[in-house]
Amino acid sequence: MNIAVFASHGGTDMQAIIDGCKSGVINARVAVMIGNNADSMAHLRAENENIEHYHLSVKTEGSEEALAQRMLEILERKEIDMVFLAGYMRLLHPAILKRYHNRVFNIHPALLPKYGGKGMYGINVHRAVIEAGEKETGITIHRVNEFYDSGEIVAQVKVPVLPGDDPDTLAARVLEREHTFLVEVISDIADGRILLGDKK
Question: Is pTM, for the whole model, over 0.90?
Fold first, then answer.
């Protein structure tokens, strides 16, 4: 199975996927990385792993439609079977979601449907969880549709919120579990235990 990873920042989730593929836990390979931030660590990680990578945005391509077309060209050329959004900070164009219906997944650092939606990413999520007095949070992997964090949930895992946690300590605990959890779930996708949609 060929995986495309979309990432905007540090790329630690992408690295976990790459390592899972290299170790054989995931029966797949990361074939391409696409990012919208030219200076992100994710590009450097892809470079270090000899993975083809692209900086693509509306600025580089001229319009949302041209951006989507360029992405689709790359995904088709690399014979991509699934797309994983590993900290990618933009909604995907409907043309991509249509072509790869139920083959695009996102990871979110909370137990959706709680603490999702526009603006709910990174430290914002963990701050909201603590301010609400939650005793547990977690990680959700879901299929991607045209709205933030609202696609079908395929897997969740809980992470405790400990007394004295601040957003940073909670973020670190969630991220540590995130790296192992996404390997478990992508392994299930690659082995057919979580089904992919038909290619359009």
Answer: yes
